[in-house]
Amino acid sequence: MIVRIVALACLVIPAAKPAGQDAPSASPKESISEAEVSRLLAELAQKAGAIDSFVATYRVEEADEGQEHVMVLSYDAPDRARLESRRPDVTNNLWLLDGRMYMRGEFGQGGIKAEIELDEIFTFGDGFETALREAFPVAEDGSDDLGAGPVFGLDVVPDESQPSGYAVNASLAWNSRRTHVLTWLSNVEGWTGASRYEKRLVREVGGDAAIGLSLESGFVDEIRLSKSMRLVDLRVNEDVPESVFVVPSAEPGARDVSAELSLQQLRMASAMARNKVYVRAAKRTETAGIEDAALRAKMQTVFRELHAVVLIRHYGDWIEETKRRSAASIQEWTEKFREQVRNDPSAREQLRLRSTAERESLVHTLDKAREAYVASLRAPALRRIDAGLLGAIAAVERNGASDAYERDVATPVLRDFDEGLKAAIGDK
Question: pTM of this prediction?
């Protein structure tokens, strides 16, 4: 078994002969409606919201002898959490403590380490939040707001690299406004179509793959691929040992993957923010159609403010490097022409022609980068939103992203170029 923890903490269960007892056929099967799923999850979420601490231990069954694989989710309200995956030859740990994420991994001959700040990554600023509230007002009394802190995810996702065709994603992330610590309790869409077996929900994913949810505890209690991962111990509202939340020093020579982890978390934060906008936009179109000009304008403003943050976070280094190269280029060729301009004023025109060509080249580079960024945007896979509506919202998003690029990337870079040139050639 392999644990990849740099992206999400991804637990991959390899193929083996399925065990007969894995089939959830011991109790009668009952089909339930989406409304009933929503009601059940809401009840479980209310119950989970009262949990101050838990330690949930999962074990991969039928592991090779001497190769026991255990995963542990630990939480202590409001802002301490740990996700641990261990087997004899590999150990991976993620901690979230006071808004910082730490990673430690040991792989026999080497290891990894990371430490990043999360509150800035998952906060998108007043511009975005204000635009979001103005475009899609939501009555929020704060009663379901758990505040900023860690959230756990556990699900089955397609993975063509695995013999079973699926993998288990076990994630630990930070959310600036939590309504659940256990994110699967907010996934009504994901559990729709599941079957009820007395005190469990079971969702068949495909082939032999399935995921089970306890209707008593609210925890995922089993994941079946070709082997089973089962919840074997759950301790709720008991004191969690302080040692669980102590981050050890990294092993000598451990590779620092902080940059990779930060980039992954940036992508996760961006995806979460985009999903929020799409869901609210789709809801708003129930009363005002997507063709409503005022609504589209507000949506475009929301997406512009969102991508203004995303662009700077993802491409800030590129922007600064582009500015630096432009300044260096200006300096190089103005020094070449400066003496000629002093002795022959007509040489100034040659300098202007050169600067015009350089500026056109810079504009071309910026335009190509904008086209690539906008083209990379795809509507999120939200099955409860009609495909046609998703496409219409995506078109508005692309316009907003283009606006953000023009305002916060292209314009500042070109302004620096023009001001640098003006200063270099001595224009008044």
Answer: 0.73
